[in-house]
Amino acid sequence: MKKLLFLALLVLQGAWAEESMVLTTEDSPPTNMLAADGKTIIGSATEQIQELFKRAGIPYTITLYPWVRAITMATNDRNTCVYSTTRTEPRENQFRWVGPVAPNDWVLFAKEDSKITLSALNDAKKFRVGGYRGDAVALYLEEQGFKLDNATNDEQSLKKLLAGRIDLMATGGFSGAWVAKKAGVRIKPVLNFQKTSLYLACSLSVPEATVNKLNGILREMEKDGTVEKKNKKYQ
C-alpha cells in the first residue's frame, strides 16, 4: 500500500511538472511584437523567455492580447504570466517576478524639430502629453497629476505626436525609438525621467519554487551572454 501511495504521489508531481504555463503579452516592440507574417511573436524579451523556458524544461504557450487583457489574465488566471511588465510598487505584491528581461527607461519624446526643452518632469505639465492606457508609464504620470491623451498603443501615440495633437509622447526609451524607426520617422528624447526594467510577472498561483528556478536560469543566461545577445539583436 505504501508503495502504491508513493507511486501515486510521483505521478501527481510529474503531472504538475508537465503542466503548460500560459504566457500573455502585447504588441510592444522591440521586446514583444508580431513578426511580418502577422502570426509569429518575436522580440528581445520573447526570445529570452523562449530560451528560459526551454532550459527550465517547462512547457508553455504565448498569446498576444491587448495590454489590459494580457495583464488582467496574469493577475486573475491560474498558472499564467505576462511580459514585458514594469515592476512598479503598486504591482509588486500582485505577482511573482522573473527578471529583469530588458532595460526600458521612461522617456518623453518630441518631434525632431521641436523646441521643447525639459529639466524636470513637472516642466512637462504645461504641454500636451500622450501615452497609452494601462501602460505603467501612463499610470505613473497620471499619479503625478498629468492629464494624458491616451492611445491604445505606441504606434497610435506616435501618429498623434506627428500630427501635432500632442506635444510629447511618454513611453519606454527602447520602445519609442523602435516605433519611430519602424515608421521611418525621427523623434528625439527630451527627458529620461525614470530608470526602469521589464519583467515576466507571474500569477501568485505559480509556485515560488518555479519562479526561483526561472530566476536562477536567467542569471545563468546573463552570465553566458545570452541576455545581452538577445537585447542587442533588437536595438
Describe the structure in your own words.
The chain is of the alpha/beta class and 235 residues long. Helix content is 40%, strand content 26%. The chain contains 8 helices and 12 strands. The chain has a 5-stranded mixed β-sheet, sandwiched between helices. The N terminus is likely disordered.
List the SSEs and their pairings:
Layout lengths: L1 H17 L2 E5 L7 E2 L6 E2 L1 H13 L3 E5 L2 H10 L3 E7 L9 E8 L2 E6 L17 E4 L3 H8 L5 E3 L2 H10 L4 E5 H11 L3 E8 L2 E6 L5 H16 L2 H8 L2
Characterize the biggest β-sheet. 5 strands, mixed
Helix run count: 8
How confident overall, as mean pLDDT? 91
The N- to C-terminal Cα distance equals 60 Å
Radius of gyration: 20 Å
Beta-strand content bin: 25-35%
Helix/strand-derived category reads: alpha/beta
What's the short version?
The chain has helices at residues 2-18, 44-56, 67-76, 136-143, 154-163, 173-183, 208-223, 226-233; strands at residues 21-25, 33-34, 41-42, 60-64, 80-86, 96-103, 106-111, 129-132, 149-151, 168-172, 187-194, 197-202. The protein has 235 residues and is α/β, with parallel strands linked by helices.
Question: Descriptors for this entry?
Answer:
235 residues, alpha/beta, 5-stranded mixed β-sheet, 12 strands, globular, disordered N terminus
